[in-house]
């Protein structure tokens, strides 16, 4: 698959997720086989450009190419300027966010709220494509409200504007992340466009990835929440698409190694205070479903330093490995119930 002149190594893409897809996470997903990753969204508000959060999000140092920077906003001129800024900062692809359903974004008529104003959508697309000499991609949804899906018009207008690829989440803004993703409109969009179409929404397993690719005819799939605490999902999907066979799940020893390596990268990237706090959600995702993980997490949340956090995570996994306690609490309860009946 190509985005402009850039050939991706495969058709598995990491979805942009605010507060998640920072440089350490993108790098890790690429290590496990993702062919491409898009940054967290960065506001087009230039007054916030030098904020600490924005500087972290715009840090692409040492990242594997092609580097894709996602921008969000509602003013065409501001978005055009933001695109130029990110290209100067090292971005090789600019992605426009018209998909975020969060209230704080939509209340500023950004993200998926833009789908209410197709004229504004068109002006933004034209302005950003004209502003830079790198490929511009678009991430969006089926529409703003159920029953008023306008993605067919938006998608066609995006292609006419010169958008290089379209990533489409199979929900409306009204759906948020509820209900199930709908793929029929993604299929319809693919049939009318000549640019690559990337299917997104509820793709959480190798089988689901293959089904969505086959059903929609999409050129690629975009994985978001399913990769949280499970970056090896890209390795699993790639293996399944190539062989039709399931890849064995990672061992507890490998999960431990991956998580501790991820923590080390987060600590180096964010520093002591933020590194410890940002790491907590990742630790929670990695340990979900493991033996006594709820009790472990409640204790882990109380730890205030990176050194101590690293030690308690390492000790938890060492205990699992020593005692072979890899079943979840629910599974243990089920076994105990069977043994007493």
From TrEMBL:
HAMAP family: DusB_subfam. The keyword Flavoprotein applies. The active site is at residue 100. The gene is dusB. Coiled coil: none annotated. It is an enzyme of class 1 (oxidoreductase). Its EC number is 1.3.1.-. PANTHER family: TRNA-DIHYDROURIDINE(47) SYNTHASE [NAD(P)(+)]-LIKE. It catalyses: a 5,6-dihydrouridine in tRNA + NAD(+) = a uridine in tRNA + NADH + H(+); a 5,6-dihydrouridine in tRNA + NADP(+) = a uridine in tRNA + NADPH + H(+). Residues 14-318 form the DUS-like FMN-binding domain. Catalyzes the synthesis of 5,6-dihydrouridine (D), a modified base found in the D-loop of most tRNAs, via the reduction of the C5-C6 double bond in target uridines. This is tRNA-dihydrouridine synthase B. FMN binds at residues 16-18, 70, 139, 169, 200-202, 224-225. It comes from Acinetobacter schindleri CIP 107287.
């Amino acid at each position: 698959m190509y985005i402009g002149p850039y050939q991706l190594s495969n058709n598995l893409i990491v979805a942009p997720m605010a507060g998640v897809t920072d440089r350490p996470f993108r790098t890790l997903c690429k290590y496990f086989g993702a062919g491409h990753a898009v940054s967290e969204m960065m506001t087009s508000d230039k007054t916030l450009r030098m904020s600490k959060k924005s500087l972290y999000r715009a840090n692409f140092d040492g990242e594997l190419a092609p580097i894709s920077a996602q921008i969000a906003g509602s003013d065409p001129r501001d978005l055009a300027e933001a695109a130029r800024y990110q290209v100067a900062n090292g971005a090789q692809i600019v992605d426009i966010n018209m998909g975020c359903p969060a209230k704080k974004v939509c209340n500023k008529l950004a993200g998926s709220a833009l789908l209410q104003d197709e004229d504004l959508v068109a002006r933004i697309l034209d302005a950003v494509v004209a502003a830079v000499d790198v490929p511009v991609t678009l991430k969006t949804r089926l529409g703003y409200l159920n029953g008023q899906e306008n993605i067919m018009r938006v998608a066609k207008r995006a292609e006419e504007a010169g958008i290089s690829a379209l990533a489409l989440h199979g929900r409306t803004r009204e759906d948020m992340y509820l209900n199930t993703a709908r793929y029929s409109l993604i299929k319809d969009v693919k049939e009318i466009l000549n640019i690559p179409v990337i299917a997104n929404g509820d793709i959480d397993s190798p089988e689901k990835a293959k089904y969505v690719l086959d059903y929609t005819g999409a050129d690629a799939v975009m994985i978001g929440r399913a990769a949280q605490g499970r970056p090896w999902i890209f390795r699993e999907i790639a293996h399944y698409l190539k062989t039709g066979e399931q890849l064995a799940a990672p061992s507890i020893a490998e999960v431990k190694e991956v998580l501790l390596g991820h923590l080390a990268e987060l600590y180096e990237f964010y520093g002591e205070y933020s590194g410890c706090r940002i790491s907590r959600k990742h630790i929670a995702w990695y340990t979900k479903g493991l033996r006594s993980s709820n009790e472990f997490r409640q204790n882990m949340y109380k730890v205030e330093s990176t050194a101590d956090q690293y030690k308690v995570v390492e000790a938890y996994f060492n205990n699992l490995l020593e005692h072979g306690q890899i079943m979840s609490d629910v599974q243990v309860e089920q076994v105990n119930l069977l043994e007493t009946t």
